[in-house]
Structures are given as structure tokens and as C-alpha cells.
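Long-time lurker. I teach an intro course on protein structure, and each term I like to show students one example going from raw sequence to a predicted 3D structure in C-alpha cell notation. This year I'd like something fresh instead of my usual example. Would anyone be willing to generate the C-alpha cells for the chain below so I can use it in lecture? Attribution to the forum is fine with me.
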Amino acid sequence: MKTYYKDYGITASIADQAAGTARLIVRDQSGKKMKDSTHSNRQAALAAWRRMCR
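-- Reply from a regular --
Happy to contribute to a lecture. Here you go:
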């Protein structure tokens, strides 16, 4: 399942992977990839996104 979050003009997508991990991809307003990281689960990826927005 892929979920999109948008804040301050920056879009993040969190996708669950088969191994139980989650992938966080953050793109700026022009669509350029700023960050691409793998986290242990969806909650960890969402927490990383929230830390970026502070």
C-alpha cells in the first residue's frame, strides 16, 4: 500500500514492502527526489517524515 503526505509544498510517499519494511521517498515541489530511505516499518517512516517537517 502506498500513502502520500503533503506539507509545506513537499510530498512524501510511504510504500510498504514485502519484507515488512517501509520505503520513504520525499520529493520537492518540482518533483526532484530529495530523500529515499528504507525504514523498519511504516510507523518509523512516518516518524521520519514528521521530523523532517519540524
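Some talking points for your students: The longest helix spans residues 42-53. The chain has a mean pLDDT of 93.
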